[in-house]
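Hi everyone, sorry if this is the wrong subforum. Our group has a chain we'd like a structural model of before ordering constructs, and none of us has done structure prediction before. Sequence below.
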Amino acid sequence: MLTKRIIPCLDIKNGRTVKGVNFVDLRDAGDPVELAKQYAKLGADELVFLDISATLEGRKTMHDMVLKVAEHVNIPFTVGGGISSIEDVDDLLKCGADKISINSSAVKRPDLVNELSSKFGSQCVVVAIDAKQINDEWIVHLAGGTIATELNLFDWAKDVEQRGAGEILFTSMNNDGTKAGFANTALAKLSQSVNIPIIASGGAGTVQHFVDTFEIGKADAALAASVFHFGEIEILDLKRELKDKNIAVRL
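Answer:
Right subforum, don't worry. Here is the predicted structure as tokens:
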């Protein structure tokens, strides 16, 4: 049985970790390098580092910070934000990233998924999908959730799987930062639509929410930010409770 993964997410803006609600009202959550070191020690299975303003600001991911974070962690480390070419990925992998996450650039040029998978292997390519439920349809959004597309979440997920994506990081914009639970109905449908791992993101507030996203949402991994950043849930405590509920995790 594959173990379920617990993944803290470091959303970075202006060199600081930030967290908001429904993608707005950001507040400071600390130094990303220190948080990364702490999570690696406390039992996180992986880390995700998203430079959330890189695409909006038309610049590349901050390589110096990626280098610093990579120096201090010994767990898989995914980097996203402003990635649009093979050269970008090559640079980030050389800085210490294990995987990269693409979102807006994949929608704008879907062949990028094929190119990156062919060059670096599907295990390196995570396609992040930010989607919002509007009139019973899940609509894909770009640029930190600021631009709506005409893409449907499930159709787009199938497309990127066929193009060679190794994982999908699905963030529900409706649930993001609400601490009301993950979008488990959509997650369950997504897991039935594709055969690659799904990382659930958006809505973690309690231990039960993690249980639900694994049991009901059929997620392969659960990503969270504020509950970890502000000490509301300790990762080892969370994993022990998951194990007690017969959910396979790495302790």
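For your construct planning: The CA atoms of residues 138 and 157 lie 12 Å apart. The chain is about 35% helix and 30% strand.
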